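Board notes (copied after class):
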Amino acid sequence: MPASRLLVPPVLTALLALTGCAAPPSVLAVPHAAGPVWPAEGQASYALHGRVSSSPRQRPVPIASVAKLMTAYLVVHRLAPSRTVVVRRADVVDTARRRTQGESVVEVREGEVLTRDQALAALLLPSANNVAALLAGRVAGSRSAFVRLMQGTADELGMTSTTYTDPSGYLPSTVSTARDQLLLLRAVLRSPVLARLLGARSAVLPVVGRVASTDTLLGRDGFVAGKTGSTSAAGGCLAFRVVRGREVLDGVVLGQHGGRLVDAGLAAAQDLADQVLGPA
């Protein structure tokens, strides 16, 4: 908890003053409250001052498009910044199929050329499942090989409760915990490219034009980075970073419901940040 939110009970302060004793550090670190009130449903984790706190009884659950954090992480580490991606006929067909299933996609055109970072913007801001599949094929040669890379990287990062089965998170069999995704978020944000894209509110792509981030908290109340996720199986999810003054809070909320699922995830993240850091 931030030092500004710590206090010594008045009676104890008076007694210490009378005896001329200084309060030990363990006494000075008495917070206003025992900790945040975790979301009433789902799960959450956050990191502050190098310390990780997590809601109890976490178990692997669907994470929807938060899974694209791993896809982006692998793309940045395996494709050179100068690499371009050319949209093929098969990518256009795949996009049409996903659109009919109600998946999140961006329009692509055969022969369209995307820079690596433009493709990442399409992946992360409007959360395009078709671009996740496209990038998986370019990085690993096939989606199945890419999923093996995702799982291997999760294991290397210590994400012991995570199973990846697709590059977009659309499948409910892609599961994780808030704590595991927090580990990944902190690794992802070490990349200046990914930190910038996760903090961008919009970007311009060659065919579709300007696309907006699904994270409407960006630019408000200290929210500087975020990746949303939402499906009926996963509920509303958000991985995020908040900077208020000198405090940097990284957090993940999963499994939120109530109204529009994306908004439920955003609201839970806002509430968690306000409890941990104090209102903006």
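Comment from the instructor: The chain has two domains: 1-34, 35-277. The first helix runs from residue 10 to 19.
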